[in-house]
Amino acid sequence: MISYHLGAGSLCAIKNGKSYDISMGFTPLSGAQMATRSGDVDVSLVSYIMKKLDIKSIDKMIYFLNKESGFKGVSGVSADMREVEQAAAAGNQRTKLAIELYITSIIRYIGQYIAELQGIDAITFTAGIGENGIKVR
């Protein structure tokens, strides 16, 4: 089984009732893209963004990756998927890209976990997007 807390959460591969793998690493920054977190990024991107946005400290960069990235950062609109979807429906291209990148990130982890578990019986979606995000689900 795979459980995914859609939005600001993570994915968990569950085997025989126990956590087998989880998308977060040492911190919640690694793994799937989230509402405000970047998810997996090339380590060289950190110095590039710091130079491009004139971010002077690593603490500010970590804040940026945790609070100003994810589909909020890509869309330029919100960390609320409902607002991102509304803007996409109105033709906003950045929000369409944000949704596509978010879904691609999810698919990557679901595919990885299906392979690791050698098949699954179910995928569960939780949280606000899991409950209400019909298009994303």
For the secondary structure, the number of strands is 4
CATH topology: Nucleotidyltransferase, domain 5
> What's the Cα radius of gyration?
16 Å
How many helical elements? 6
What characteristic shape results from the CA principal axes? globular
- Helical residues, percent: 40-55%
CATH superfamily descriptor: ATPase, nucleotide binding domain
Q: How many domain regions?
A: 1
Give the spatial strand order of the biggest sheet: 3-2-1-4
Low-confidence stretches: none
The CATH architecture assignment turns out to be 2-Layer Sandwich
Q: Provide the CATH top-level class.
A: Alpha Beta
Oligomeric nature of the chains = single chain
Provide a compact summary of the structure:
With 137 residues, this protein is α+β, with helices and mostly antiparallel strands. The protein has 6 helices and 4 strands; from the N terminus they run E-E-E-H-H-H-H-H-E-H.
Which keywords apply here?
137 residues; alpha+beta; Nucleotidyltransferase, domain 5; 4-stranded mixed beta sheet; 47% helix; globular; ATP-binding; acetate kinase activity; kinase; ATPase_NBD; transferase
How are the SSEs placed, and which strands pair?
Blueprint: E1 2-5, E2 11-15, E3 18-22, H1 44-52, H2 58-67, H3 70-75, H4 81-89, H5 93-117, E4 123-126, H6 127-132
Parallel strand pairs: 1-4
Antiparallel strand pairs: 1-2, 2-3
Helix pairs in contact: 4-5
